[in-house]
Design a protein that fits this description.
Blueprint: E1 4-8, H1 15-26, E2 30-32, H2 33-43, H3 46-57, H4 63-74, E3 81-84, H5 90-98, E4 105-110, H6 113-121, E5 123-126, E6 132-134, E7 153-154, H7 161-175, H8 177-183, E8 188-192, H9 197-208
Parallel strand pairs: 1-3, 1-4, 2-3, 4-8
Antiparallel strand pairs: 5-6, 5-7
The structure holds adenosine monophosphate (AMP).
């Protein structure tokens, strides 16, 4: 089984949903820089305050801020991990390599842009456990209430059409170059994300050999 995994893909491509299932099945921690930055923002830390204006504008948070929190977290994970939303720039990938992290696989969940905006504006997630829903295609049983833990469902402030379009611009300009970066290292698995959630999961399971 490949246990040091990077999950890559555009915003709304299904990374968060797949990450939850994969980490449960593989018994490895789910490390999401988006979740870490949102937690820092909620707690009102200096990092959270600095990150807020970038997140709200749909831009990437500067590399040095993100690299710092990830390096600290990874140093305590010896038995593998699933990185969700990191690295997002070549500089972040270089920092990961320089830190001596040996990645086993990079899974790219690919979804065409025209489907992403629709997915994101209909997305809601649990404020308590982070479970993700889609109002039309994957609704919670009871509107506004999480099936998993009963928490209230919320929509992320950056999940609106204007900010999503800026996040897509950032993705294509800054994150997509990582596809070639990891392809050249023989680590890339390309997965069609325009399919049912369990079909996508199965494709990833085969790639990661578990
Ligand atoms: P996500 O939850 O992965 O969609 O991330 C939400 C927002 O957090 C992004 O739009 C960025 O502003 C910020 N962010 C998350 N991960 C990173 C990263 N690796 N580098 C820079 N910014 C990030």
């Amino acid at each position: 089984m490949k246990k040091r995994v990077i999950l890559m893909g555009p915003p709304g491509g299904g990374k968060g949903t797949q990450a939850k299932s994969l980490t449960a099945a593989m018994h490895i921690p789910h490390i999401s820089t988006g979740d870490m930055l949102r937690a820092a923002r909620r707690e009102g830390t200096e990092l959270g305050k600095q990150a807020d204006r970038y997140i709200s504008a749909g831009q990437l948070v500067p590399d040095d801020l993100v690299n710092g929190i990830v390096a600290e977290r990874l140093s305590s994970e010896k038995d593998g991990y699933l990185l969700d939303g990191y690295p997002r720039t070549i500089a972040q990938a270089d920092a990961l390599e320089a830190a001596g992290e040996k990645i086993d696989a990079v899974v790219l969940i690919d979804v065409p842009d025209e489907l992403l905006v629709e997915r994101i504006v209909n997305r809601e997630s649990c404020g308590q456990c982070g479970a993700v829903y889609h109002k039309l295609t994957m609704p919670s049983k009871k509107p506004g209430v999480c099936d998993v833990c009963g928490g209230a469902l919320v929509q992320r402030a950056d999940d609106n059409e204007k900010v999503v379009r800026d996040r897509l611009v950032a993705y294509h300009a800054q994150t997509q170059p990582l596809v070639d970066y990891y392809k050249s290292r023989g680590l890339l698995f390309h997965i069609n994300g325009n399919a049912a959630v369990d079909v996508v999961f199965e494709e990833i399971r085969k790639a990661l050999e578990f």
